[in-house]
From TrEMBL:
Keywords: Disulfide bond, Hydrolase, Protease, Serine protease, Signal, Signal-anchor, Transmembrane. It is a single-pass type II membrane protein. Residues 1-19 form the signal peptide. The gene is Dwil\GK15652. Its main location: membrane. The lineage of its organism: Eukaryota, Metazoa, Ecdysozoa, Arthropoda, Hexapoda. It catalyses: Preferential cleavage: Arg-|-Xaa, Lys-|-Xaa. Its EC number is 3.4.21.10. GO terms for cellular component: membrane. Residues 59-103 are annotated as: Disordered. It is found in: Membrane. It comes from Drosophila willistoni (Fruit fly). Residues 59-95 have a biased composition (Low complexity). Pfam families: Trypsin (PF00089). GO terms for biological process: liquid clearance, open tracheal system; proteolysis. This is Acrosin.
């Protein structure tokens, strides 16, 4: 099983010892292959600081939490605490709502989810430049490792496994990037002021693999830059076409892409996904997309990025899923697995109250 990230080795090391006791032989082999691939991307750091070494040692030796009651019928949900050496924040349900800005910022009039072209990854193709302006690149120590999605002018959505155990001050966000090897003046870089992992994120099975990133300062929306739309609550998206975007690998074990890629996959029902080779590993908080025969999928490095759907009869792109995990990439019988975003609407709304929102086109017309 591969999480869809290029720099997740810190988390892998943290859970490796326990995973060896519980994982099947095929799962162990997949994890070991993934670890080797990730380590091959890391720059040599013979002069690493004592602080970094101490952080790695703490992550490696940390133990996983015990199960909590109230888990779904198909899995055990646990609540994890961030390592003491990490600056990642885990907010719990008792956390007070964010304060109301006083005085409130003046929010500009804008529309979410409209791609920057009027036409309509593995097995995919390169996107148009800034076609999906809400897709953000996450950098760790200045190097690309995950993706995220802009929800409003101050917050982004990503996968918990992209930020859990990582040092917040080393994470940065880049917007309006397309080709990683080309320098341009349009890109927007921001530091991260806060990272909020879901309080019930389970590092064993990637249940609730969703997190919120707060920028150190808001971005300004314009004709080029605008956020994605939130998904329709309660909708299963079964049978709809999902659009996955990212800079991840174009094949298993391959290098990450220089340019933003997109691929279309059919979204499966929960029953259909559980009939795949994953079985009961699929919880109600997950969403699956892919073909029985494989061939098209997200891959390593796509973690945290969006799976979109376009609302019927509109141009509105909604974020239905967050790239989470999968067995290999584009492998027959193993669709890509995503965090199901519309299961977290209230949680996201409560944590992003102080941000400027853009209207949905369909609601603005009405």
């Amino acid at each position: 099983m591969l999480v869809r990230s290029a720099w997740i080795c810190l988390l892998i090391l943290a859970v490796a010892s326990l995973a060896e006791e519980t994982a099947s032989p095929s799962l162990k082999q997949s994890q070991n292959t993934f670890i080797q691939w990730v380590l091959s991307l890391l720059p040599q750091r013979p002069g690493a600081s004592d602080t970094e070494n101490a952080t790695l040692a703490t992550l490696t030796s940390s133990s996983l939490p015990t199960a909590e009651p109230g888990a779904s019928s198909s899995t055990t949900t646990t609540s994890t605490q961030a390592p003491s050496s990490s600056t990642t924040t885990t907010r719990r349900a008792t956390t007070p709502a964010p304060p109301t800005l006083n005085p409130p910022r003046k929010c500009s009039d804008c529309v979410c989810g409209i791609a920057n072209i009027q036409k309509r990854i593995v097995g995919g193709q390169e996107t148009e430049v800034h076609q999906y302006p809400w897709v953000a690149m996450l950098l760790y120590g200045g190097r690309f490792y995950c993706a995220a999605t802009l929800l409003n002018d101050q917050f982004l959505l990503t996968a918990s496994h992209c930020v859990y155990g990582f040092r917040r001050e080393r994470i940065s966000v880049r917007l309006l990037e397309h080709d990683r090897k080309m320098s341009h003046t349009q890109k927007i870089d921001r530091k991260v002021s806060e990272v909020i992992t879901h309080p019930k994120y389970n590092a064993r099975n990637y249940d609730n693999d969703i997190a919120i990133i707060k920028l150190d300062e808001p971005v300004e929306f314009n004709e080029l830059l605008h956020p994605v739309c939130m998904p329709t609550p309660g909708r299963s998206f079964k049978g709809e076409t999902g659009i996955v975007t990212g800079w991840g690998a174009l094949k298993v074990g391959g290098p990450t892409s220089d340019t933003l890629q997109e691929v279309q996959v059919p979204i499966l029902s929960q029953d259909e996904c559980r009939k795949s080779r994953y079985g009961n590993k699929i919880t109600d908080n997950m969403l699956c997309g892919g073909y029985d025969e494989g061939g098209k999928d997200s891959c390593q490095g796509d973690s945290g990025g969006p799976l979109h759907i376009v609302a019927n009869g509109t141009r509105e792109h909604q974020i239905a899923g967050v790239v989470s995990w999968g067995e290999g990439c584009a492998k027959a019988g193993y669709p890509g697995v995503y965090a199901r975003v519309n299961r977290y609407g209230t949680w996201i709304k409560n944590l992003t109250k102080q941000a400027c929102l853009c209207q949905q086109e369909t609601k603005k017309i009405k």
